[in-house]
Task: structure prediction
Amino acid sequence: MRRIILASLAAFAVTQASAQTLHIGLRQDPDVLDPTLGSSYVGRIVFSGLCDKLFDIDEKLNIVPQLATGFEWKDQTHLLIRLRPGVLFQDSEKLDAEAVKYKLNRDLNAKGSMRRGEVNSIDTIEVVDPLTVLLTLHAPSSPLLAQLTDRAGIMISPKAAEAAGDKFGLHPVCAGPFAFESRVAQDKIVLKRFPGYWDNKSIHFDEVVYQPNVNATARLENLRAGALDLVEYILPTDVETVKRDPKLRIATNGSLAYTGITFNVGNGPAANSIIGQNKLVRQAFELSIDRGALVQVVFNNMSKPTAQANPTSSPYYDESLKPPPRDVAKAKALLAEAGVKTPVTVVLTITNETDTQQAGEVIQSMANEAGFDVKIRSMEFASSLQAGYAGDFQAYLIGWSGRADPDGNMWQMLHGGGTFNYGHYQNAEVDKALDDARTVSLVDQRRAFYAKVWQHERDDLPLIYLWAAANIVGLKQSITGFRQVPDGLIRLQGMAIQ
Result:
């Protein structure tokens, strides 16, 4: 009897020793965990553990199959997608063509869908057979496949979604490696390993805990103390501290992201501000900012000044679009030309992370010298997004995590129908150029349309692009298999703690 008890205890000890939990520090608390409704970058990081997509991107931004095994353009308006057999959702329902049709229709039609502008080129969705879907488009759409590498391509259980209704984001059910377990707002999100995952051999953790904390110093100290295994963003000014710790390492690469200031030019009563209604005032505001000094002070020169949406690594990066140098005298002259009384009051909404707070203060100081009275309004991230959608802002300092295809960095923010066009910027020529760029596939053809977009955007300035960030991940030396992709998402497949 004693030998049986000892053997049982030994087996329990082995099981406990082999069980592993990965603790990931996030810079913000995600918004709703519903891929149709969600819009935060850190939410995309959680989705990477929770939900597979039809397609993914690799380190070189190539589109690679995930839940799909492949695709075929029958012609310019008919896309055939073949699905991986034997895939289960986390409620043990099968992933099939009907499920794909359900999710894409949900993205197109659900109230509050943030994906509608990404997939609105789809006219009809046909189930060819249980593992084949045919998408018929209204017109050719060069970015559609790339859109299916992100939240539009995440598949969810129709059974669970129908049962949950508008509460699906409280307990999402996907086809990824980890199933949703629990969430405590502003504290943690817990995922448990899903034993029915189609690629289980690549998963080496039993549990993943995402822990949001807007305080960068606290995230760093938790990493150094071992309470976190990986932090998805380390401040550039803290990089050397991590490098000096023999238990830790830094992983960096160029990202697809940018941060800029969106102005409310047409979204509700708050648009009726001086800066919202006068492009000369917005032009003056831009000239008050020294982007180079800003990224040096706040980001230790690890971010790069920019005046456009696409990164330098993109074939759609426009070499002719350079950030203008700071010119306080010219800024004051533009304010005089606009006939406005100075100082011009501008309420700048920012989020409450450490580096964003610092950036807001630097912008405030610079703009004040040029005749602006910048008042900073700091908000929790998800709350700031809701204020953005509602038009409850004058100017909004907000980042975009970036997409591999330029349409994903521009259409939603600058098109009159764009979901992330917080300020409701409207320009018929910009809309047409963005729409036309979707219908052609050659880089030179698309660049020509985007050149028209930038011509108007740089004059109207509904959005001042400020800096392009770097991906800076801090992690334990004991973590293996970490792959850094330019989109910054933490892919758990292949990762382990030795």
User: Anything to note?
Assistant: The longest helix spans residues 443-460. The mean pLDDT is 95.
